[in-house]
Amino acid sequence: MSRLFFGSLCLTLFLLRIYFMRGEKLGIFARPALRMVQAKSWTLKKHFEGHPTDSNFQLKTTELPPLKNGEVLLEALFLSVDPYMRVAAKRLKEGDMMMGEQVARVVESKNSAFPTGTIVLGFLGWTTHSISDGKKLQKLLAEWPDTVPLSLALGTVGMPGLTAYFGLLEICGAKSGDTVMVSAAAGAVGSVVGQIAKLKGCKVVGSAGSDEKIAYLKKIGFDVAFNYKTEKSLEQALKNASPDGYDCYFDNVGGEFSNAVISQMKTFGRIAICGAISTYNSTHALPPGPPPEKIIYHQLRMEGFLYNRWPEDIRQKALKDLLKWVSEGKIQYHEYIIEGFENMPAAFMGMMKGDNLGKTVVKA
Fold it and tell me: Helix H segments across 184-233?
């Protein structure tokens, strides 16, 4: 009886095998094709001339290949737009994807160091999806609390925060009792500079371009703040804010504004040159620099810098300081969040015009 049953079972399995083989050959049981991921990316259609416009950008869609061993597939959560992009785009070829940092989630992984679901930071560009071998990805700090938005890794507890931290404490060497001047003080970097300076016992003066921004600066602890667009005399506004002059100047704007500040620096004053956004869109010759005799006879020190000058371990310590200050409420933040990846160019152009209060972030 058992032999008969066994023989029938073998015959049944053999017939089933033939049935499925013929079915696959005819396409009846064809295996479903692997789902291919389509990445949307904003590219530089043509180089900027003056203020960026929609015509400078083009949205493209590409199909990403399957992952290889050691790779991960990333999906953008938050993307950054920053002033440096206006200058850095000069190095791109027309048709190249716009550069930039994003907070992303690993949605597929063949890399044990980055399992599915891991949140990472990376300079992945203006794209919704990307493939990485993991070498240039950075995980969030292990102590990152649930109460702090992930997007802050692009702002106060990210590159802008590090720029503020090192520019003020290392380049300017700000110390208790110093008077610190911050231009573009309501921006992603400037707002952090002012608050760190207050933590270190400095008097802080800030300038911004709207009454709303001035109110914000006063709310987060700036001693004096003024709207440079409504002042009749910039020189007098600076004098009124600090009659004795300035020990430190954190320069985010360059141009005529910075010339006016440098003319009111104290002897041995220190100037951190972070950016020159007032000149980035100019199609005319740049204004002359500050008076050389002021720099010489007041023995001023001016230095440009990038945050990644400092080694990784020092940057990690700085990030932990920034996260601690945010978590304790000692540094406040404001994010200017724009919904939708399709609005990347609009977010960038608005940021360049000063529409933002705090850090501009695009939520994908």
Answer: 190-199, 211-219
Q: CA-CA distance, 236 to 217, in Å (whole number)?
A: 20
Share of the chain above pLDDT 90, in %: 87
CA distance 315 to 159: 10
Enter the tokens of residue 293.
Answer: 């005799």
Cα–Cα distances (Å) from 149 to 80, 114, 154, in that order, read 14, 21, 10
Q: For 72-101, what is each residue's pLDDT tens digit?
A: 999 999 999 999 999 999 999 999 999 999
> Which pLDDT value is given to residue 288?
86
Q: From residue 217, give the alpha-carbon distance in Å to each of 63, 191, 204, 352, 354.
A: 45, 7, 10, 20, 15
The model scores a pTM over 0.90: no
Question: Which residue is associated with the tokens 């007098």?
Answer: 236
Number of neighbouring beta carbons within 10 Å of residue 200? 16
CA dihedral 145, 149, 151, 152 (to 10 degrees): -70
- The token pair that represents 186 in the structure block: 């309501």
Q: For 144, phi and psi rounded to 5 degrees?
A: -60, 120
Q: How far apart are CA 344 and CA 230, in angstroms?
A: 30
How far CA 16 is from CA of 3, 11, 20, 251, in Å, comes to: 20, 9, 6, 77
